[in-house]
Amino acid sequence: MNETIKNILNRKSINIFQDKPIAKEDLDLLLKAAMAAPTGSDLRPWRFIVVTDKKMLIKISEALKSTEKIKGNSAAILICGDSSKSERFWTFDCSLAAENIMIAAQSIGIGSHWISIRPNKERTDNIKEIFNFPDSIKPLCAIALGYSDQDTVPKDKFDYANVHWEKW
Fold this sequence. Notes:
The chain has about 170 residues and is an alpha+beta fold. About 35% of the residues lie in helices and about 20% in strands. It has a domain of about 110 residues: NADH Oxidase. The protein contains five helices and four strands; from the N terminus they run H-H-E-H-E-H-E-H-E. The chain has a four-stranded antiparallel sheet, sandwiched between helices. It comes from candidate division CPR2 bacterium GW2011_GWC2_39_10.
């Protein structure tokens, strides 16, 4: 099995992180992977905020209410869309960028966890307030990043009952 498929199949959500910083070069690599994602009409509406400051990570965690996952991690990347670039595709394009970040993180030994912001209005408003976004910038999700401090096994989610060939 090739390394790309291994990384996809072995990626899992990490909830407990080591207190160990992520090198800026690795964060840059994750951003490069994000921006290699497909994008409707090549509009690239994604915008990213990389957060490594512990106080800011706690502030984001509190703003997102029901999540503790950002508090103890090394970094978070907030993925936002610029609706002035693409009102129609930004959520799709940003979701693809987020997936690329998580697979790339897996490939270099960094754990990740997707935390939804959209469509929760309270989370959206809280994040917009913290970062003082212009009206066209819409937060989609935060990706918590760090080195795993838990022993987890990826779930085998393949279920042939969900597959149809040629017709329903």
